[in-house]
Amino acid sequence: MPFSCYVDGAVAPCSHGAGGLVIRDAMGIVCYVHGFYYAGLLDSFIFELMAFRDAIRWCSLKGLTEVMFYGEAKVVIEKIQRRDARDVKGGRILVELENLQRQYQGFGISFVGRSNNQMAHDVVRKTLSLLLASVESFDFER
Fold first, then answer.
1. pLDDT single digits (tens) 4-20
2. Is residue 136 one of the residues assigned to a domain?
3. Total domains present in the chain
4. Is-contact 3 66, C-beta < 8 A?
5. Cα separation of 113 and 62, whole Å?
6. Does residue 82 lie within any of the structural domains?
7. Average pLDDT, whole number, for the chain?
8. Fewer Cβ atoms within 10 A, N terminus or C terminus of the chain?
9. Tell me, what's the pLDDT at 89?
């Protein structure tokens, strides 16, 4: 795969959350760093699902057609890989993810440990710290 996208999502104690992505090219050089802000939810499982959904959407908008997505939320990744949209919690988002995966055949999703996902985790922490309730997403400077 020409690109690797490291994804993370998290929830803050005061009813908001964030997702983040770090994209590296085939040489391992960081190409993009992007954060997503989510308001009004308190569930880390849902934030992780939303982070993957939004990362796939964002990559497709940028014209990236062959991307391997990595994340550290093993339970979430297993649900996505099993295409288990029957799950009541997150079912709609799982259906969206399944449709996106069908639409973009060059995308794959796999588990990676926290130590290999630290940059995405840091993007999420930075996004949470900004508390930009009026902003849904933004790019970080490299």
1. 999 999 887 766 888 89
2. no
3. 1
4. yes
5. 26
6. yes
7. 83
8. C
9. 72
Question: CATH number of the domain that 89 lies in?
Answer: 3.30.420.10
Q: pLDDT digit string (tens) for 47-95?
A: 888 899 999 999 999 999 899 999 999 988 988 888 765 666 777 888 8
User: Per the structure block, which two tokens stand in for 42?
Assistant: 């308190």
Whole-angstrom distance, CA of residue 116 vs CA of residue 112: 6
* Predicted model pTM: 0.85
Q: What is the pLDDT of residue 110?
A: 93
